[in-house]
Amino acid sequence: MLSPEENRLLTETGPGTPAGEVLRRYWQPVALSIELEGRRPVKAVRVLGEDLVLFRTGSGALGLVERQCAHRGADLAYARLEDEGLRCLYHGWLYGPGGGCLEQPAEPAHSRFHHKVRLRSYPCWEQNGVLFAYLGGGEPPPRPGLDGLEAPSAYTFAFKGLWECNWLQGLEGGIDPSHVSFLHRFLGDDPRDPYGQQFRDTVEGGEVPLSTVVREDPRPQISVESTYYGFRVIALRRVLGGRLHVRLTNLVFPNAFVVPLSRRQAFVQWHVPVDDSHHYWYMILYDFQTPLDQDRLRAQREAAYPPPDYRPLRRRDNQWGWDPDEQATITYTGMGLDINVHDQWAAESAGPIYDRSREHLGAQDVAILAYRRLLKKAMAQEAHGAAWSLKKRIGPPALDFIAQTDDWRTEWPERMRAMRGASPWAREWDLNLDADPGGGI
Ligand code: FES
Ligand SMILES: [Fe+2]
After folding, report:
1. How distant, in Å, are the alpha carbons of 193, 431, 435 from that of 410?
2. What are the tens digits of pLDDT across the range 275-314?
3. 113 and 191 within one domain
4. Which residues form the pocket of ligand 1, taking CB atoms under 6 Å from any ligand atom?
């Protein structure tokens, strides 16, 4: 339970807010690469409460600048795109990708006034279908060495979706292994092919889907371990007559998590505030073994989250498609087979900004408490001028398996190394790489 003041401290991310300053110290996804394709690669984006324009110049440079022209405030989302940058429609001022004003064609020919004018601008880079920006001050941190970004792009698929609630509600769902036993449950046999078809293990000759396994033990033993990138979440369940099911997921500070999707796939998902009551999740799915059918995946996802806004078809104003008949017979939620919609409902139905002075956290919420401690610690370090950064490392490890014996601590690093060893692209990994030199949570 938080006081209303603490809740504001953790949820508000506009300019000058403590949580906003923490998020700004990391590279944040701001658009999908596909959003900058086409004849005019210019896109208005709102991130962390800031209105910005993202663009690619005719010569290929990426720019992210404030949306209002520095002359008299006209909207640069409508600007003319030129080889050198964006030209305001009102009086023709031209801005480069770094925000500098390059031309003021209505000023006297010898004027040097344009040298004094600059838009706020942020550095950008692009990897595996996602455009990232650094909205903090000073030098940007190193680019994160996540598997989803290190994988060759053919082995990845990127997508996004709008959730109409505060970013922290989305993130807290991602580091909550307990809900999987309930929210994503199918009442009969699991459907073979829903989106997000989950992990299946072979047990005594048959495949067992994760959603069947985890419903056998709704009381997982959950613990967290500090790592250099945030923390690892370990959920242990007794299933199938006493065997140990192990699920390892990760919080990648400050606003991402990495979870396994199948025996050879995982995804990284960021929850990026648009403003305090809306956010986008950005996901990069990656496969350790084979290239992904990106066109098929995109068509499937766009059917549920159509561009250009990626606002889901199932949402609060149509009760997320809730069907009481389906809830009685097919799914725990009654909201279809897409597990992403289940997670969306869980985050959005708590309200635009959940009032955590009304919550009651239990033993199952240990990772949520760990995250809040970490975020508060980062805010305090900001006050002392310390900079955190996600260094160039490998991983993080995301695994889901039924252990051979109860000695899962020995088994999981071996499984992780074996999975990476069989991958055409994954770099060698060592458990010691994960250690947190800073003392962590
Ligand atoms: S308002 Fe943009 S050039 Fe005048
Ligand atoms: Fe979920």
Report:
1. 32, 11, 16
2. 999 999 999 999 999 999 999 999 999 999 999 999 999 9
3. no
4. 69, 71-72, 74, 88, 90-91, 93
